[in-house]
Automatic annotation (TrEMBL):
Organism of provenance: Cedecea neteri
Documented EC number(s): 3.2.1.26
GO CC terms of this entry: cytoplasm
SUPFAM superfamilies hit by this protein: Arabinanase/levansucrase/invertase, Concanavalin A-like lectins/glucanases
The name this protein goes by in its record: Sucrose-6-phosphate hydrolase
Keywords: Carbohydrate metabolism, Cytoplasm, Glycosidase, Hydrolase
Length: 480
């Protein structure tokens, strides 16, 4: 008998044979072919990092969700593994939706949402979602164990379990939408991975804060407790919440058995065009790492023309600063990708652009760049014709601007400059992405880029005045 998993793997291999390359990342995790969205089940287990992800192996569009799987020794170089979960049982017939992984007494265990359309695919108002378990002895092949938790009365959207162990109990946060279209996070307590009871509603949306909260994660960081989640339905407010859907965090205090006491209102995790559904995990040495889906629902994805869509962000180490802000920095393991190093000497930028690399060679790069005094109205870095990262002196903001033929891919995202005017940037460029870490992790902007071939010139520019570039370093990266 051909099982759904065997069928899915065969379809993926056929699709992979035809996958195109121009946009396929060289050091970010993307599906071998087909579609990817949320990271799932991020975990360090038995000496390996595992990244599972929402995956459709039959084509480049979202469809019945499978769990793709990759492993890594360093969070940087990933190796694809066989598909871990395929839908097809009565409780997950139409999709194995997002979830998490834990080590249950040495057994790698996946907790995911089984999804069923009750009245035809795509009808969001008639669905059934339950939480399910799958286990593995070898970390590669998973056996489904069935349903472990059904929704409370009146809740239909009930998904994305994040599970952890603390003080002798299992804990689970779940994203939910209630009858009044109010997003919330439910907290469950478990005696085992199979027996759960509702502890409390951890928190829920105030007016304007979303009709559904997806992909919650709840973890300690310094003296704080962070609730990270991805709300749907927050309207843009001035320069905030510019993307269709957000991802962000609430900072508070929490102990098992207590209420979550909020210290700080909702803050966005990332200020670029493409970042959603982030999840965290603990690295081998105890660092808290976050990875997100570096795309946005309903955005055009030109890589679909190459038979694939979706990639994950770089892994970022997160920490809480004394002012309560969450900082994010690329993991230090990324430095092992650096090969050729080129210094950018201090210089004054004016009307003449300074080319940083010979023509069209900006493909896999890390750039560290220090900006100084400026009289220019705008100055920054340009990649090809479609992407500029610049300081807007009048608005006092750092802007990541995208302009491509497809209007839906165009637009600016920005963050404020610091009071003292310091600006230190770390920029990672891959074949179809840019990630910008500002001032040692104070802000982060992640966006997908789609330069056409021959349009990968990288240059510094300034307009209407002069800008001092204090210098920097540029590294070619090599993922092999
Ligand atoms: C978030 C999400 C999750 C769901 C999954 C389905 O991007 O909508 O809530 O489990 O994607 O693919």
């Amino acid at each position: 008998m051909t099982t759904p998993l065997i069928k899915a793997q065969a379809a993926l291999e056929t699709l992979q044979a035809t996958r195109g390359n121009a946009f396929y990342p060289l050091y970010h995790l993307a599906p071998p072919a087909g579609w990817m969205n949320d990271p799932n089940g991020l975990i360090y287990h038995n000496g390996l990092y595992h990244a599972f992800y929402q995956h459709h192996p039959f084509d480049e569009n979202w469809g019945p969700m499978h769990w793709g799987h990759a492993t890594s020794r360093d969070m940087v170089r990933w190796e694809h593994q066989p598909i871990a979960l395929a839908p097809g049982n009565e409780w997950d017939r139409d999709g194995c939706f997002s979830g998490s992984a834990v080590d249950d007494n040495g057994v790698l265990s996946l907790i995911y949402t089984g999804h069923i359309w009750l009245e035809g695919a795509g009808n969001d108002s008639a669905i059934r979602q339950v939480q399910c378990l799958a286990t593995s002895e070898d970390g590669v092949h998973f056996t489904k164990q069935g349903v472990i938790l059904t929704p409370p009365p009146g809740i239909m959207h009930f998904r994305d379990p994040k599970v952890w162990q603390q003080d002798g109990n299992w804990w689970m946060v779940l994203g939910a939408r209630d009858q009044h279209d109010r997003g919330k996070v439910l907290l469950y307590r478990g005696n085992s991975l199979r027996e759960w009871r509702l502890d409390r509603i951890l928190t829920e949306a105030d007016a304007g804060m979303g009709y559904m909260w997806e992909c919650p994660d709840f973890f300690p960081l310094g003296n704080s407790q962070i609730l990270m989640f991805s709300p749907q339905g927050i309207p843009a407010q001035g320069l905030k919440y510019q993307n269709l859907f957000q991802s962000g965090y609430l900072r508070g205090r929490w102990q098992p058995g207590e209420a979550f006491r909020l210290c700080q209102p909702f803050e966005e995790m990332d200020h670029g065009h493409d970042f959603y559904a982030p999840q965290s995990f603990v690295a081998a040495d105890g660092r808290r790492i976050v990875m997100g889906w570096m795309d946005m629902w309903e955005s055009p994805m030109p890589s679909k023309g190459e038979g694939w869509a979706g990639c994950l962000s770089l892994p970022r180490e997160v920490c809480i600063m004394p002012n309560g802000k969450l900082y994010q920095n690329p993991v230090h393991e990324l430095a092992t990708l650096r090969t050729h190093e080129q210094l950018v000497l201090p210089c004054v930028l004016d009307k003449l652009n300074q080319r940083l690399l010979p023509d069209a060679q900006a493909v896999e790069l890390e750039i560290a760049w220090e900006c100084g005094q400026s009289t220019a109205e705008r100055y920054g870095i340009r990649l090809g014709q479609g992407c500029e990262l610049f300081v807007d002196a009048q608005a006092r903001r750092l802007v990541l601007s995208r302009s491509y033929q497809d209007e839906r891919l165009c637009g600016d995202r920005s963050v404020p400059l610091s009071e003292n005017g310091d600006l230190h940037l770390r920029i990672f460029i891959d074949r179809s992405s840019i990630e910008v870490f500002v001032n040692q992790g104070e802000y982060c902007l992640s966006s997908r880029l789609y330069p056409r071939s021959g349009e990968r010139q990288l240059e510094l520019f300034a307009s209407h005045g002069k800008a001092l570039c204090r210098g920097g370093t540029l590294w070619q990266l090599n993922s092999l």
